[in-house]
Automatic annotation (TrEMBL):
<dbReference type="InterPro" id="IPR010301">
    <property type="entry name" value="RRP1"/>
</dbReference>
<keyword id="KW-0698">rRNA processing</keyword>
<dbReference type="GO" id="GO:0006364">
    <property type="term" value="P:rRNA processing"/>
</dbReference>
<dbReference type="Pfam" id="PF05997">
    <property type="entry name" value="Nop52"/>
</dbReference>
<dbReference type="GO" id="GO:0005634">
    <property type="term" value="C:nucleus"/>
</dbReference>
<keyword id="KW-0539">Nucleus</keyword>
<feature type="region of interest" description="Disordered">
    <location>
        <begin position="270"/>
        <end position="338"/>
    </location>
</feature>
<feature type="compositionally biased region" description="Basic residues">
    <location>
        <begin position="285"/>
        <end position="302"/>
    </location>
</feature>
<dbReference type="GO" id="GO:0030688">
    <property type="term" value="C:preribosome, small subunit precursor"/>
</dbReference>
<protein>
    <submittedName>
        <fullName>Uncharacterized protein</fullName>
    </submittedName>
</protein>
<comment type="similarity">
    <text>Belongs to the RRP1 family.</text>
</comment>
<feature type="compositionally biased region" description="Basic and acidic residues">
    <location>
        <begin position="275"/>
        <end position="284"/>
    </location>
</feature>
<feature type="region of interest" description="Disordered">
    <location>
        <begin position="353"/>
        <end position="396"/>
    </location>
</feature>
């Protein structure tokens, strides 16, 4: 009775967890995933039935369906798949894996093209952790046969399962495509590199100690059994090709230390050259800046000088215009040099006008009022003298 009650409580709790896993709230889904993987499964996995696992995986499917960001999708896929490799027992891990494949096979038709890639990723992670489970148990025959039968019945050969029969084969094709890619990293290294022959050669050398020789031959026998099993299985594993890396300078009989010293010297030379180039570039930039500053200073000086001359000319021109157009009543200030020059010009013009007219005409441009009056008086005196002379001659 107690066991039945515990099973009923576990089933009810699994249904409640499945509802929280399928929630639309992201924080609720995150808390449900953490509780499921860290607390519920390790404690209650042996008591869960196949129907309880299917309920949980229904919620987990929609939890992964709602994951949108790539980083979160990758993290969630790894955490879910780790429930297979880190299960409390191989039997519970295999049951968890079978429930996953059953759910994914049932929902495969309803996955749209936009979410297909992340479910491909989830499937790869589960296959990888299923093979990790086999490797952790040294590929034990019972566990290996159980996992392979789950793959064949649920995915690869769906006709053997009544639930999976009649469903599309897309998931099976994907599993068949990535099967060897996920299995290869888990296989023993001796299957690829023929360690049995290498151990045999090392053990047959004369310098090998007797105690070490026994250990080497024991390893040789173990790898021979593994290689024979691989040959009987009919699987062909391609040996990866590695590029040969040669140490520079080893052909000349140089040690690794010498090579490292030479590399350090070359790096130091390159660094010094780079620094000298940088210093030269800085010096050239400084010289260019100095030249530019000198040119700018010269240009500024020229502009200042030209600007002063232009200002002088511009101040003189209005004065001349005012002098020509003014009638003497405007308050215009003239320089002494300008006044003297004007006076000389007027006197010269007056003298030339007097010489041409012979003193009979009036001056065209008198210098001042007083000078004009004196000239008029002189002319009138000359006329009077001339008229007196004419009268005397007529009287005589």
């Amino acid at each position: 009775m107690a066991a039945a009650a515990a099973a009923a409580d576990t089933s009810a709790e699994a249904a409640a967890i499945a509802r929280r896993l399928a929630s639309c709230n992201g924080s609720t889904r995150g808390r449900a995933v953490r509780y499921l993987l860290s607390t519920f499964l390790p404690a209650s996995a042996p008591q869960l039935s196949a129907s309880d696992l299917l309920k949980l995986w229904k919620g987990l499917f929609f939890c992964f369906w709602h994951s949108d960001k790539p980083l979160y999708q990758s993290s969630l896929a790894t955490r879910l798949a780790a429930g297979v490799s880190s299960g409390p027992s191989p039997a519970s891990a295999a049951a968890f894996f079978a429930a996953y494949l059953t759910t994914l096979r049932r929902e495969w038709v309803h996955i749209d093209i936009h979410r297909l890639d992340k479910f491909y990723l989830l499937n790869r992670r589960f296959l990888h952790h299923a093979f990790l489970l086999l490797g952790a148990n040294s590929f034990a025959l019972d566990i290996t046969s159980q996992v392979i039968s789950i793959l064949s019945e649920k995915v690869l050969l769906p006709e053997a399962d009544n639930v999976a029969a009649g469903s599309p084969r897309g998931l099976g094709y994907h599993v068949a495509e990535v099967f060897l890619d996920e299995l290869l990293p888990v296989l023993p290294v001796g299957l690829l590199f023929r360690f049995s022959k290498r151990f045999s050669d090392i053990g047959a050398k004369a310098e090998t100690v007797q105690a070490n020789r026994k250990v080497l031959f024991g390893l040789r026998d173990a790898f021979v059994k593994v290689e024979k099993g691989l040959e009987l299985s009919g699987l062909e594993i391609a040996v990866p090709e590695f590029e040969s890396t040669e140490v520079p300078g080893a052909e000349n009989g140089m040690d690794l230390d010498d090579v490292k010293v030479e590399k350090k010297k070359k790096k130091a030379k390159k660094a010094s050259l780079v620094e000298s180039e940088k210093e030269g570039a800085k010096a050239s930039k400084r010289e260019k800046k100095v030249k530019k500053e000198k040119k700018e200073k010269k240009k500024k000086k020229k502009v200042e000088v030209d600007g002063g001359d232009v200002a002088e000319h511009s101040t003189d021109a209005p004065a001349e215009e005012d002098q020509q157009m003014g009638d003497g009543t405007d308050a215009i200030t003239f320089d002494e040099t300008l006044m003297s020059n004007l006076q000389k010009q007027f006197e010269k013009a007056a003298a030339e006008a007097g010489m041409v007219n012979g003193g009979s005409g009036s001056s065209a441009s008198p210098v001042s009022g007083k000078a004009a009056k004196k000239r008029k008086r002189a002319k009138s005196a000359d006329r009077l003298s001339v008229s007196d002379g004419d009268d005397g001659s007529s009287e005589g």
